[in-house]
Amino acid sequence: MSDVADAIKKLHKELPPEVTLVAVSKFHPVQAVMEAYQAGQRVFGESRPQELLSKIQALGESAASTGNQELYSDIRWHFIGHLQTNKLKMVLPYVSMVESVDSLHLLQSIDRWGSENGKVTDILLEYHIASEETKQGFGADQIREILLSDIQYSHVRICGLMGMATFTDNESAIRSDFSRLVALRDALLPQSGNYPNLPDNFGLLSFGMTHDYRIAVSMGADIVRIGTLIFGERSY
C-alpha cells in the first residue's frame, strides 16, 4: 500500500462518518489523486483553476485508456482557494462546491454565471477568523448582512461557513478562532428558512487542516481539508 493510500485509510477510520474529508490535492500530481481514489477517497480540494482543469483532463484520459469511462466520474471537487472572477468558467462547471467565497463581488459573479449557464452552485462563505490580515474572508457583520438581506441569489446555495484558524501551535488560540466560526453559525441557525439567502439546510462548517483537524472535529466541523498529512509536502 502506498503512503497516500495508507494515510487515506487511517483518516477514514479516524474521522466520524458524518465528517467529510476533503483531500487537498493542490500542488500534487494527478497520480497522487489516483492513489487516494483507489483507497476510497472521493472528495478532493483544489485552489488553482488551471491545476483543477489539468487534473480533470488527465483523469478523463486515464479512464478512457482503461476502457472504463465512468472511472473517476464520482469524484467531487471542492474549490478551496481565492477564486478570481475571470476564472469562473474554468471552475464552476466542474466543482460540487466553492468553499472559499470571500467577497460580495465574487458571490454576485458566481450567481450571475449560474443564471447565464443554468447551474446552481453550492458555496460556503469564508469567515475571516484568523489573526493574520493576509487571509481572505468576510467579517461577521458582512456575513449577516448577506444572509439576512432581501437580495436573493437564485443561482447559489449558501450551505454554510468556512474558516481558517491562525497558523500557530497554541491550541487555545486555535480553539478561540474556531469558536467564533461555530458561534456565528449557531446564531444564524434559528433564522434559517426565514430569509432568501438562508436556506433550511444552512449550517455546514468547514474548518480544520492537517495541523488542527483533530481540534476542529472535536468542535463540530462538518468538513475538514487535509493535504500535507495525506500527500506530504507540496510537489510543485
Main beta sheet strand tally, sense and closure? 8 strands, parallel
Q: How many β-strands, per DSSP? A: 8
Taking Cα atoms only, what radius of gyration do you get, to the nearest Å? 18 Å
What is the 3D shape? globular
What series of H and E elements makes up the topology? HEHEHEHEHEHEHEHEH
Question: How confident is the prediction overall: mean pLDDT?
Answer: 96
Which blocks of ≥5 consecutive residues have pLDDT under 50? none
Terminal-residue CA separation: 23 Å
> What structural category arises from helix and sheet content?
alpha/beta
Q: Approximately how much helix is present in the residues?
A: 25-40%
The strands making up the biggest β-sheet line up spatially as 7-6-5-4-3-2-1-8
| Distinct helical segment count | 9
Strand content: 15-25%
Describe this structure in words.
- The protein is α/β, with parallel strands linked by helices and 236 residues long.
- The chain has helices at 3-14, 30-38, 49-66, 88-91, 104-117, 140-148, 171-188, 213-218, 228-231; strands at residues 20-24, 43-46, 76-79, 97-101, 121-126, 156-162, 204-206, 223-226.
- The chain has an eight-stranded parallel sheet with strand order 7-6-5-4-3-2-1-8.
